[in-house]
Amino acid sequence: MISQRENVWSNIPIRMFINTISHPVDYAKVLIQIGHEPIPPRQTFTLFGKPALALPNVFQYVKYIKSVDGFAGCYRGLVPKLCAYTLSAVAFEKTSECITFSDEPDKNKDDEELTEPERRTRCIHELIRDLISRMVGIIVSHPLDVIMLRMMAQFVGGETKYNGIVRSFIEVYKENGIAGYYAGIIPRLIANAAVLVLVSSSTYVINKYIIHDQELKTYTASTMKFIATTVTYPFLVVSHCMAVNNCGLVAGLPPNMPIYNNWLDCWSHLSSINQVKRGSSLLWRYYTGPRIIVKGKAIPINTDYFNADKIQ
Hints:
- By secondary structure, the chain is mostly helical.
- Helix content is 60%, strand content 6%.
- The strands form 2 sheets. It has a 3-stranded antiparallel beta sheet, with no helix packed on it. A two-stranded antiparallel ribbon has the order 4-5.
- The protein starts with a helix and ends in a 12-residue tail after the last strand.
């Protein structure tokens, strides 16, 4: 157990390094998720020959951010992001250590050494422990995630309201009160809980009834996590939109974003314009909002990307 705990703590700086390296891509993805598309789409065709509008991929988006704010600007929101991850990881680990079960199977035994009832019990215990620990980690760190998202969203309007962690905490309270620190937390909690339940239950069933090769079983959890994350992705989009909605920034106010009553209102609106999965594809992106076909070309509705005199 000691070696496992040491391994968890040693993973924190490694993960922070990875988060730092990948931050520009995550930054661009957040801007896409909240609906900011500063680069006009280009006319193209799908593999089936249908007219479509191709949006810039995430690397082109990062290049655009750099052209506006410079290299350092690509790391806007990094500090609260790293603080949120560290706080969440510590809260997760501490909570996990505190949760014990009286009928827990021997932790020193591998799954192959356990009986079927013991295996099932271990799976349930691990799910409950991870679920509670993950929820605690999210609740504790979410205010920092809100600050991170609002710092990033300032790119849309060029604001500097959210600058520095302490100042940003004060600004969040001024704009939205205590509730502002937990804007968008409900869809985030739902997404994370759903992923844990789906991965745990599906991995157990697949490894028990479908896959019998021990080597293949090691890939089941990661494969199911990818599928579960894809299925629950819309909750992440809604969570990020709610975190910046009506926060005093241009990105969270009309015409860039309607003011939503709650996250269900946000979900309903994004679903109605087919934008609930925006940002899910980073390399091949297409405009999927309202549009019309004019002379064989796809034209976005209610945008200024194209006008009538450009259609030949």
